[in-house]
Each structure stands twice: as structure tokens, then as C-alpha cells.
Amino acid sequence: MRKLGSLMLILAISVPCFAKKVELKGDWDLRIKSIIPKLPIQAWLEDNNKDLLLEFSTNLGTVQVTVTNSEGEVVYEQSVVTQPEVVISLDKEVEEGCVIITDGENWVYGVI
């Protein structure tokens, strides 16, 4: 019974339960060719519209993350060292806007 409880806790922590998936588009050259091209970044906006969860499937080094609102105003802009999971707390709620992630050569974006 404890094993089942522990498994459920791990799943609850690792999978964003109450978050809106942000579909990312763009190109990221990993120098590794794959049959199925998949971006190394996934993003979710939590239900509170103030927390952005980024998941990186590979180490991309340092990336610049920019979040804008529907008027194009920058809500968040900072360099982030990639880890498997990064949670970014935004100063303002973002119900509509855009997230842009770049390393200077590669970039992806998504509509929130």
C-alpha cells in the first residue's frame, strides 16, 4: 500500500496536473538527427497564470526566456540555466501573451 501511495505522489509531482500546455513552435538544432523531430523544450502555464513550467529533455546550457502579455509588454525576461525542470514565477498574471526561448542561435515560441 505504501508503494502505491509513493508512486501516486511521484506522479502528482512530475506531471503538471492543473496547467495549460503551451504549444511551442520554432527550430532548435541539437546537432543530433532524429527520425521524429521533437523540440527539447516543453512548457505549461499553471492555472494561477503566474507560474511558467519549462521542461528540458536535454542540457541546452543557458537560454534567454522572455514572456510578454497580450499588449506586447515584457512581463518576464531573464537568462535561465537549463535543468530538467524550471519553474518561473511571473510578476503579473498572463492570461494571453507569448513566451520566447532562445540561446542566440536557436529559438522557439508559444502563444499563452
Kindly describe this structure.
The chain has 112 residues and is mostly beta strands. It is built from one helix and nine strands. The chain has one helix at 2-14; strands spanning 19-22, 24-27, 41-46, 51-56, 62-69, 74-81, 85-89, 97-102, 107-111. Strands 2-9-8-5-6 form a five-stranded antiparallel sheet, with no helix packed on it. It has a four-stranded antiparallel sheet with strand order 1-3-4-7, with no helix packed on it. β8 (97-102) and β9 (107-111) form a beta hairpin. The chain is globular.
Quick structural gist:
The chain has one helix and nine strands. The chain is mainly β and 112 residues long.
Q: How many distinct beta strands?
A: 9
What shape does the CA trace take? Answer: globular
Estimated radius of gyration:
15 Å
Distance between the termini: 40 Å
Structural class: mainly beta
Biggest beta-sheet profile: 5 strands, antiparallel
Fraction of residues in β-strands: over 45%
Helix content: 10-25%
Mean of the pLDDT scores?
A: 84
Topology pattern, helix = H, strand = E: HEEEEEEEEE
Sequence stretches where pLDDT stays below 50 over 5 or more residues? none
Order the strands across the largest sheet as they lie in space.
2-9-8-5-6
- Helical stretch count? 1
